[in-house]
Amino acid sequence: MNAKLNIVPFVSVENMMKLVLTIGIERFIVELAAYIEEDFRRWELFDKTSRIASHSTDGVIELMPTSDGQLYGFKYVNGHPKNTRDGRQTVTAFGVLADVGNGYPKLLSEMTILTALRTAATSAVAAKYLAPVNAKSMAIIGNGAQSEFQAIAFKALLGVNSLRLYDIDPDASIRCAKNLAKFGFAIEICGSAQEAVEGAEIITTVTADKRSATILTDNMVGSGVHINAVGGDCPGKTELHKDILLRSSIFVEYPPQTRIEGESQQLSADHPLVELWQVMTGKAEGRTSAKQITLFDSVGFATEDFSALRYVRDQLQRTGLYDELDLLADPDEPRDLFGMLLRAEKNVGIIPN
Ligand code: NAD
Question: Cα of 206 to ligand 1 centre, how many Å?
Answer without folding.
Answer: 5
